[in-house]
Amino acid sequence: MPDLSEPLQSWLSELLRETGGVAGTVHLHESGGLRLAAAINIPAPVQQAVEWVPSGKGMAGLALERGEAVQTCNLQEDRSGAVQPRAKAVNAQAGIAIPVRDVSGAIAGVVGVAFLGEREFQGEELARLENAASTLTCVIGS
Q1: What percent of the chain has pLDDT over 90?
Q2: Domain range for residue 122?
């Protein structure tokens, strides 16, 4: 099992409560990829599989590569290639991976949130989620 950070676990729990998410992850950017630092309601095999995510792989890796949020309206049925097969083990439908930038503008990490029910994130809701995710920098000190 990955070594998860208690402060990030607490932050993620609060983020899920505020946004209505049912599962989530925090990956921190390091050496061209992402290292899992927090996970809530993510099955252990999935945590092990996403302990290290290379840039461009899966929703989190694509968010890192593109520098913008990557989303799916249904994790279970997505055929875009953005959702890795192991993500189907998460008991949710809609999902979003949001890159978080530090004060210098570099991506410090990616926050993933999954929700019950299908939906697309646009406009005010997307802005609210991105704003909530941006508070990650207060916890990691970037």
Answers
A1: 68
A2: 6-140
Kindly give, in sequence order, each residue whose CB lies less than 8 Å from that of residue 108, ignoring residues fewer than 6 positions away.
Answer: 28, 29, 100, 101, 102, 136, 137, 140, 142
The CATH code of the domain that includes 80 is: 3.30.450.40
Give the per-residue pLDDT at 118: 86
d(CA 55, CA 65): 6
Q: Which amino acid is at 108?
A: A
Neighbours of 94 (CB within 10 A): 20
Task: Tell me whether residue 1 is in a domain.
Answer: no
- pTM score, two decimals? 0.91
How far apart are the C-alpha atoms of 134 and 137, rounded to whole Å?
A: 6
pLDDT digits (tens, 9 = 90+) for 57-77: 999 999 999 999 998 876 667
